[in-house]
Amino acid sequence: MKKMSLALALVAAAVLGVTACGSASTGGGSSAAEAGGVAQTPAAESSTGEPDSSAAQGADGEKVYQIGVLQYVQHPALDKANEGFVAALDEAGIRCELEQQNAAGDQSACQTIATKLVNDRKDLILAIATPAAQAVAGQTTEIPVLVTAVTDPADAKLVVSNDAPGGNVTGSSDLTPVKEQIGLLKQILPETQTVGVLYCSAESNSILQAEMAKAACEAEGMTTVKLPITASNEIQTVVQSAVSKVDAIYTPTDNMVAAGMTTVAMVANDNKIPVICGEDGMVESGGLCTYGIDYYQLGYICGEQAVKILTEGAKPAEMPIEYLPAEKCSFSYNEDTAALLGLDLTGFAK
Prior knowledge:
The protein is α/β, with parallel strands linked by helices. The protein has helices spanning 6-16, 76-91, 107-119, 130-137, 178-188, 204-219, 235-242, 255-259, 261-270, 280-284, 295-312, 335-341; strands at 22-27, 65-71, 96-102, 124-128, 145-150, 169-173, 194-200, 223-229, 248-251, 275-277, 289-292, 322-323, 330-333.
């Protein structure tokens, strides 16, 4: 189903009721996922405190699903995951109202928003990125919760196992091809001996990928220097301190680094230090290149899972965490950064 423009959707909704997912952005930031439709309105409550079923129906009496979306922070990768989720719902013709919330990278805001979405008794909640997923999963064992942009849901204590989640949580993993990305680094920069691994030490998934990068670098005959950060205001100082110690920098799919990638690129590029990234959005923000996954497709996978849960009675407990197939990964590079560093990467592009 094609997305309607906002103006057209509002007119259609006034005449015919909800025909597709509407989107309302509230909370600590806007989302890039803006689907046309009616604005979110709170569900009315009956005298028992339960949602009034009539508030969850369209003008024709058909079910209108109430879906909450909590995105941890706004940056291109997570925005794309959000867009993919909304697109999958629209294309399936799901009638729903979306409440879009963005925590702006604030963990306490995640907890507050998660509590609100659960108390509003949403039919389903999508949590984008590990901190958001942990906040939502910690608030409910009943509402179906989909997670995306989470590298290892089992390691993050979101599911019993990635193959058999066993509870109310499932979704898609953004496990990036770390080994292949380090191999790409060595291929493009064969003289590299020391790699700085930049990551947020407060994110379990980032720690996991940093260890994977260390192992991959050692396999390629390179040594690593850990460059951990705990807050975004540390990025410039940490990267600046590394320029005399490393030949290149690698950063995995890390939310804090992704949100501050322009700062990373500014310092690294000024000092002629190539940055190999975990995903495309980082490259768009000034990193050199990546061999990475498509976050839009990750979000789309969650949208398809949502359709199965809402309309087919599928159980999250029985739905394995899904991964993007290797053939969906692709090489991308920043032409301006490559030129600045004196590198010709046209031969690597497919």
